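# nightly structure sweep
# worker-07 picked up a monomer target from the shared queue
# config: single-sequence mode, recycle default, output format = structure tokens
# input follows
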Amino acid sequence: MDDFEVDDVVQRALDRLTLLAEATTALSSTLDSYKGLSRVCRILVPQLADWAAVDLLENDGRPRRVSVAHHDPSVLPVGGLTGLLPP
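# output follows
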């Protein structure tokens, strides 16, 4: 492994650690789990994915979409795609 390959491996590891640190900060900066997860989606989308959605189960077992983020926010409908989902 030459120096260039080592530098590339180290840089990728630093990028992953930075992403993890940003997600940790987003989750720990609020007591509102919905807000924290929305922040994590906004962090992950440009760095890791084109879009992200977070679904959580309500106490009664029904799924609720709490956050949707897309790299091009204009493609999301006004009012978003959050709320109770069909079973």
